[in-house]
Amino acid sequence: MPKINRPRRGSLAFSPRKRAKSPIPKYQSWPVYDGAPILQGFAGYKVGMTHIVMVDDHKSSPTEGKEIMVPVTVIEVPSMKVAAIRVYSKDTYGKHALAEVWADQLDAILGRRITLPKNYDGEAARKKIADAAAAGIVAEIYAVSYTQPAMMTGVPKKVPDLMEIKVGGADIAKQLDFALGLLGKEVTLNNVVQTGSYADITAITTGKGTQGAVKRWGIAVRKRKHSVGGKKRHIGTLGPWNPHHVRWQVPQIGQMGYQQRTEFNKRILKFSENAGEIMPAGGFLHYGVIRNPYVLVKGSIPGPVKRLIRIRPAMRLGEHIVRTPAIQFVSVQSKQG
User: Fold this and answer.
1) What are the pLDDT digits (tens) for 20-59?
2) For strand 198-204 and strand 260-272, is the pairing parallel, antiparallel, or unpaired?
3) Which of 73, 70, 78 lies closest to 47, judged by CA?
4) Which residue(s) pair with 271 in the sheet?
């Protein structure tokens, strides 16, 4: 008789499953880019979902050239501001912050997020960075940017979210000039990605609190004869006798959700500043009215409504042609039910 087997349930790739340290996702890697200097990231806030009708422009698709219905996620993306430029060096022990240059004028509300620098010598910092660049020890340049949630009404917060965004480019000197030119200025999403291109979407998923092994890991519910005392949702074993401890691979109760996840190669279908063209009657459910530029992303993305969403150009995508989507219709039907 053949041995009955099945794949394990629940991926171990995400272990240990514990709460994220911050609601602001962090990137450990960035796309390789050798062109003119650009910012390689942006951030917005999740609004909700709707659907559109567009012409299928994927080559060799069974519905190529025909109108199809596509679910989309709406992200409100007000402009971000660059507060500082941070320069890193790199050695065998990793990256090290070398110096940073802060903008001359910073919004007072940013002081509710961090302690604003006092007695700061900007000229000395610029000279230190210039000398480091001339010596060839500058490895990476980041723009310390922050969102402007006070411009929105759907997110009940005013304190900005602060994050580092990598400055990409082939030449360090050009990257530095580009980054210094952004100090204190506003940047928008269309400075980062194009309509029709692909991007990686990162967010902190919806928190579900403490959950059991059945929901958390997808193990099978016990049969009637095997559920002693009615404990149908308990695990059958805590592992082998040796080693004499419970291994981390054993599915157990614990935290579920509120973890950082990245969805790769999500297509940017539309970027616009006219929110009225997608606003459903009564506004979006649990969010309200969009008052800033927005972006439509194909499919669903992690996190609940109002969650901070980070966007970067796709880094696992090969050669592709950027095609502008032909959107025929956007649903504005009320989401209130």
Assistant:
1) 999 999 999 999 999 999 999 999 999 999 999 999 999 8
2) antiparallel
3) 73
4) 295
Distance of CA 316 to the CA centre of its chain: 15
**Cα end-to-end span (Å), the chain:** 54
d(CA 292, CA 79): 8
The alpha carbons of the chain give a radius of gyration, in whole angstroms, of: 24
Residue 88 to residues 82, 136, 183, 322, Cα–Cα distance (Å): 17, 11, 17, 33
Tokens coding 193: 């990605």
**Tokens 């390789």 sit on residue:** 32
The beta strands (E) that lie in the chain are given as: 38-39, 42-55, 67-76, 80-91, 94-102, 140-146, 162-168, 186-187, 198-204, 210-211, 254-255, 260-272, 294-298, 308-313, 327-330
Q: Do residues 154 and 284 make contact, with C-beta atoms less than 8 angstroms apart?
A: yes
In angstroms, the Cα distances linking 258 to 14, 24, 154, 253, 307 are 12, 11, 21, 15, 11
CA distance 153 to 148: 11
Enter the tokens of residue 273: 């500043």
Spatial separation of the C-alpha atoms in residues 270 and 77, rounded to whole Å = 12
Is 0.70 topped by the overall pTM?
yes
pLDDT tens sequence across 264-306: 999 999 999 999 999 998 899 999 999 999 999 999 999 999 9
